[in-house]
Amino acid sequence: MSRIGKKLIRVPTGVNVRVEETSVAVEGPKGRLTVPVPAGIEVEQQDGVLRVKRLGDEKELRAKHGLTGALLANAVRGVREGWVRKLDVVGIGYRAEVRGRFLSLNLGHSHPIEIVIPDGLEISVEREPRTVQNYVVTISVAGSDRYLVGQVAANIRALRPPDPYKGKGVRYSDEVVRLKAGKKGA
User: Fold this and answer.
1) 133 to 89, 129, 153, 168: CA distances (angstroms)
2) Percentage helix, strand, coil, to 5, in the chain?
3) Which end of the chain, N or C, is surrounded by fewer C-beta atoms within 10 Å?
4) How do beta strands 16-19 and 169-172 pair?
């Protein structure tokens, strides 16, 4: 039995869950999400608790049991509290700002990079106190869908990953960048 799949998912007040045959709709103050339920998996709702059950013991069903439980727990937390991923922009001359529904980044390329902010996400740019050398700003990606928040943050980081010698680039706020030693003089 999957340990994650066996966990009961508590539905807090203010969050409405509607269980259907092939999906579960979760609605709360931060938005509305729909989690697909694969064939062979059942979701039951009783007394403010969601329980995920599987109808067989095949390997594929065992894997989807835990996956469905994790996706439901992420959706319930997302519509109640939301998910946030923070990125630090480090490097002299690097800039980031939000213009309407676009995130504009200057990361040392010959041109500024414009990213369209997807619906359901909020991106903000602020300067927070940091001890990182040449720190510029922090980009916060927030939303109710954990997958979308993580994917957009990863796409932003991929535009200029941290350099291993000087540490310049875009990094997650909790990421530790180990710097390599440069050339040694003779």
Assistant:
1) 11, 11, 22, 9
2) 20, 40, 40
3) C
4) unpaired
Instruction: Give the Cα separation of 112 and 20 in Å (integer).
Output: 45
13-19: long-range contacts at Cβ-Cβ below 8 A with a sequence spacing of 24 or more?
Answer: 14/80, 15/76, 15/79, 15/80, 17/45, 17/50, 17/76, 19/43, 19/44, 19/45, 19/50
The C-alpha atoms of residue 11 and residue 84 are separated, in whole angstroms, by: 21
**Domain spanning 83-172, CATH class:** alpha beta
Residue 52: pLDDT band by 50, 70, 90 thresholds? very high
Q: Can you say how many angstroms the Cα of residue 109 is from the centroid of all Cα atoms in its chain? A: 26
Q: Which pLDDT value is given to residue 132?
A: 78
Residue that is written with structure tokens 């001890």 in the block: 131
What CATH superfamily classification does 3-80 receive? Ribosomal protein L6 (3.90.930.12)
Any bridge partners for residue 57, and if so which? none
Contact between residue 87 and residue 139 where contact means Cβ atoms under 8 Å apart? yes
For the chain, the structural domain boundaries read 3-80, 83-172
pLDDT at 100 over 70: yes
- Residue 1 reports pLDDT greater than 70: no
